[in-house]
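Possible regression after last week's pipeline update?

I re-ran a chain I had predicted before the update to compare outputs. Posting the input and the new output here so someone can diff against the archived version. Not blocking, just want to make sure nothing changed silently.
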Amino acid sequence: MRHALVTGASGAIGASIARRLAADGLRVYVHANSRLARVEALAAEIANVGGDARPVCFDVCDADASAGCLAQVLADGPIHVLVNNAGIHEDAPLAGMRREQWTRVVDVALLGFYNVTQPLLLPMIGERWGRIVNITSVSGVVGNRGQTNYSAAKAGLHGATRSLAQELASRGITVNAIAPGIIGDTPSAASFDAQTIKRLVPMGRAGRPEEVADLVAYLVGGDSGYLSGQIINLNGAII
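New output (post-update):
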């Protein structure tokens, strides 16, 4: 059985990804920062339908906490599939943005990416097979007013995706990013009413978390081994 880790699984997108990977037969470690009860409930839900899910809780910005928890996870075997989904919003125009707002958003996305991904790489390389998917945002592609911190963080993940893909290509490991647009049941979607969504999205609707999960499932499947280093826009034809 292959093992997967989904960070930020306490949110709608992460939870949908975890459900889909478990349904596809992977053991899924479902991560939360502080909302342990949510991922415990998610793991129980997955187990109730025959899947294998295990909750883990740590702050991805804390190197020691991340390393300690990941060492326990690796004691059960290497992670074959990593979905870096953890991320936060602290929106404000840059002229009025506090240093802490910039630092927290960038650290969760970029420092968190390092703290989670780096310890898992050598065991994954030893398997000569792996799939890494970074969940980013349309904001990292085109920018968005009031989200300079968030856009910078997600754009940084795009660069990391492309570089890491080149480093790991000869080892049977792919690295890709999904840049969703407006996805329902998420904090970013809550700020858009139906009319605004129709105006911004050519398809006239918000995406569904399950649609992100479906794309992740393809990227981590056995037929996607030649697709790597890509930023895939999932946004209803916004761009």
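Follow-up from reviewer: compared with the archived run. The mean pLDDT is 96. Marking as no regression found.
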